[in-house]
Amino acid sequence: MAVESKDNKVHRVLIANRGEIARRVIRTCKKLGVETVSVFTSVDALAPHVREATVAVPLGDNPREYTNATRLVQIAVENGCTAVHPGYGFLSENEAFMTAITEAGVAWLGPTAKTMHDFSLKHVAREIARSAGVPILEGSGLVQTAEDAVHEAQKVGYPVLLKATGGGGGMGIFLCASDADVAKQFEMSAHQGQAFFGNSGVFVEKYIQRAHHVEVQIFGDGEGGCIHLGERECSIQRRHQKVLEETPSPLVDAPLRAALTSAAVSLGAASRYRSAGTVEFLVDEDSRKFYFLEVNTRLQVEHGITELAHGSIDIVEAQLRLQLPGLTPEGGAPALLSSLAEAKPYGCSIEVRINGEDPAHDFAPCPGLLGHVSFPSEEDVPGVRVDSWVETGTEVSPHYDSLLGKLMVWAPTRQEAAAKMAAALAKTELQGVPNNVEFLRSVVADPRFLAGHYTTRFLEGFHFVPHVAQVLAPGMQTSVQDWPGRIRLWHVGVPPSGPMDSLSHRLANALVGNDEAAAALEFSLQGPTLRFHCAALVALAGARFAAKLDGKPVGWLRSFRVEAGQVLEVGQVEGDGVRGYLAVRGGVQVPAYLGSRATFPGGKFGGYQGRYLRVGDSVPLSKEADVGAQPVELPEQLVPQFGALAEGSKSAQWRVGCLSGPHADPDFITAGFMDTFHSSPYKVHYQSNRLGVRLVGPKPEWVRPDGGEGGTHPSNVHDHIYAIGAINFTGDHPVVLTVDGPSLGGFVCPATIISTELWKIGQVRPDDEVIFERLTIAQALAARLRTDATVAAVRSMAADGVAAADALAAVTAAAAAAEAAAAAPDVALPPSRALMLEVPASEGFPGAQYRLAGDRYVQVEYGPMALDLTLRVRVHCLEKLLAEMSASGELPGLVETSPGVRSCMVEYDIAAISPGKLLQVLQAAEARIPDVSRMVLPSRVVHLPCAFDERWTAEAIGKYMKSVRPSAPYLPDNIQYIAENNGLPGGKEEVRSTFFSTSYLVLGLGDVYLGAPCAVPMDPRQRLVTTKMNPARTFTHEGTVGIGGSYMCIYPMDSPGGYQLVGRTLPIWNTFGRSGPFTAEKPWLLEFFDQVRFFQVSESELESMRSGFTSGQYGITITETTFDVAAYTAMEASMADEVAEIKARQRAAMDRMLVAEAESLAELAAAAEAAGKDGAAAAAAAAADDEDDESVFDKPGYVKVAAPFSANVWEVRVAAGQSVAAGDTLLVLEAMKMESPLTAPVAGKVLAVRAKTSQLAASGVTLIVIDTN
């Protein structure tokens, strides 16, 4: 029930603050029935205090708006607030703000303006204390110059503190031991006082060598009545900021307590103090004398332990009851003070402050993403209290203080309280942002703390060993990865991520005795430089890089010990290969996201804050980083064989084993081309990365003239689930889909690399050649078992002390057993061809094809190559049935099923169930699928805004034309192309009206990535058909809406893609599920069989909606409905003739556009041939043939700067004649989706620039010439 004031106005409190104190005030207001108004800047839009308040008011994008007094007064008045609670920090002690609030007729829950003014200036506060008979430290008044400060310091006697009179929180305070120190620090103290508190006044104060910081909580009625609530010990500090507080103080005995509290109450009474405040003292441990420091005219951060020690007291409640009519108890303020005074303290309370800071880096603040947050509950630790504002997914802003939360405990004795605090910290987990939790665990375990014998200098002699490796240089694309990565989410488009070279990753872990799933570092081309703050056992694997430990070379494929303080520097890659791996005993301790620690940079989740490492990062390591394993070396016989370098070439040739399928001969690609495919080398394109490795080589010979309903190109098919390692033809261009690749798409895949060979694709570099060797299923099975045995044997060497000879013998025995198992499976292996088995259609059964997709997947495909929604319903039934069979044990080894439009991808463990047995189970399952024609499935209608033909799609198309393909029938206007490809007489307007009148049925998720829908218009008459871009785009904005084949897709993240673009809508992925219709367990918006309906909005409206949707301030409409198969089938039959006419019109239009596409491709091929841009070799030849031959630069003083690897020239930053210094960036190269600066090795003048933007630069080709003469 809401509490009303005397004028019947409902009490409403504006909380002029953020973070945990805002939540703390809201909690008490709710208890008392008082409404609350919170304020927030855009960086705090998802903070708990926003959603927990009665009303939340946005302050805008400026992070400093929390101190905009004028705006806050306006908000208080406009929202009918009767009071303002300022919390602490920001404007909590700002006299001008308090005055403005009271002049607006709003109560200020705190002291009067005069009290705030007097105590805000430390030199004035000292005089008030002196007048009240409170002891003060020897010191000066305000000093105007450094010379005056030195003079006063000499009078007081060193050491002294130089203090800003308006300071607080440790700011503006400097310890000075000499005249030189005072002279040096004077200006800084004045500057910090002015900058942070608007007052540059400075004074000198005596410094006590063995001091305790003890404070007394007071509460006054503003009329001279004042009581105390005991003292708090606050001596454990860093940079004059409190780290741990406790009550009572272990130093203070009864006589000293009586004197301290009496002095504090006298000061409060003399100043007619109102509300809650704190009087701070310094206590000399040797003499037991105490001295006044200052008065904090606000609620203190550590007020909670006073509440715990007094049982029933709520200090915020007392503030509200004192000043809000209707809440004041009978008897008024005196009665309130009396009730507070009657509550006597009992037991001991301790608080620690959990901060986002790096103890290994001088407690530097550390903003960033918290990937996991877990605090202890009352059940975990009885007597615990947590005041915090962070949760899993919180983005800690750099704009505010580093306090993440406060952990408090209470117990009858100090010994028990200390033990409870240790237990509470052990249960506290904050991962993702460097923080002081591990540091606090060490503090509360320190014997001096446990004995209660510590002063303000406690941390000066405190030894703390952080279990981190500090990043001094990040290398290139250095990320945290684990194996097998993020599994069982492929069906909704979440890629596994993990290592590109899984074999090297697993071996690196094995060499340090880790489980092969432990997280390790992956890096490309250039490795990281790390300072280890703790001892650790580490190993390097993968491609060989130059590596040094404290300047001394270290070996590869062996584990070695790093001592605390040593620096491991991994330089550039040497030889072939591109990626290296660094494993540390115990693994890298980043938080798991959706079951894995692997980094997915595109989705900005997993690993270290969802990104590649940066300078200054602290990589968290295990406490067992140097125990439990011994250094070992990988036996030579087990070293992975990299590609062979051709004579006189810098490029390697790799032989990579694969299996045919799922889409090869006879129904998609000719048998003749498949022979060519398996015998011809494919060159690695420079635009390759963790999403996919692009290849250049023989173009396929297609069996079909086009993709039918799947699209106009013969490479198009109805969307299906891709196998990881599939060689995917986007148009005529092959791409190997790798660990960060898309799960659902509409292109054919004629072959799939087996799991034990895929590591090689993680090591290819631009211009390397790949030959795809055709293997059998038996060979794949044997390779899998042999590889697992190898990794296990190496781990046994490090973890169990097994001798190398014994480990090799174990591998040899396992290999023989693997060959035998593959040769004699429990059920005969199916043929090693794309189409393993075909079952014809029969009554009630549409027919099925069982397609091979590597050694991990079998694709079940139903019916003819047509869009039939009953087939998708059958897939749904098959998935449900297989899940039940897996749970019952009928289907061992099932990993996951993932639906396509008319197919189901079954992922299985070939070591747990043979392919032959799997086929038997799949066929048996068909007999148990019920009649789908009469099914009614639950469905939802999801209404989304969309800006049509907007600037974001234009930007993506512009990038495509610049870097991928300059002209095509679908360029520069995708929407006009859609109109022409469908023969729409109304052109773009007819596309628009069709799009916004369509209800799109979601058939698949992950069409590209992360819950992206593969959705088809429910009304067959509205199915616009398009081809996909050939080749695909390298960039698409998150939220973009595209049409490809007959399907609609929404891109959930910035990513490549091939659909024709029509508009942009809301985000459909929310990583931590912190707002809107998302949850932490289901961060994707859409579900199978949802119906998506768009309504048109402007670009500016969409921007506002996107911002509000992300922050939880804008909601979408979702209604429940059903998908009735029988009703849909009847509707479809009723319009068959009309649909046939539409398809005929589309067919004629598509034929015209196919001719135009063929002509466009021919023109581009001719232009490329003429320009010599068919590859890096051609680019090199073009450079050599240039009239400005390189040999002209072979002169003394001329320095040629060459491309270190084949790459695209992304940006040229210098011009001929320009002077440069060593280290200046000359140009930026792009390769493997990495932008790499090419810097000047020397100082001089740029003589020649031989690079142009978008030029393909071959490795070793001179791009810049610098004249040093």
From TrEMBL:
Domain Biotin carboxylation per the UniProt entry, residue ranges: 9-464
Domain named ATP-grasp: residues: 126-324
Gene Ontology MF annotations: ATP binding; hydrolase activity; ligase activity; metal ion binding
Pfam families: Biotin_carb_C (PF02785), Biotin_carb_N (PF00289), Biotin_lipoyl (PF00364), CPSase_L_D2 (PF02786), CT_A_B (PF02626), CT_C_D (PF02682)
Superkingdom of source: Eukaryota
UniProt-listed SUPFAM superfamilies: Cyclophilin-like, Glutathione synthetase ATP-binding domain-like, PH0987 N-terminal domain-like, PreATP-grasp domain, Rudiment single hybrid motif, Single hybrid motif
Domain Lipoyl-binding span(s) in chain numbering: 1196-1267
Entry keyword annotation includes Nucleotide-binding: yes
Keyword Chloroplast annotated: no
Swiss-Prot/TrEMBL keywords: ATP-binding, Biotin, Hydrolase, Ligase, Nucleotide-binding
Named cofactor requirement(s): biotin
Descriptive protein name: Uncharacterized protein
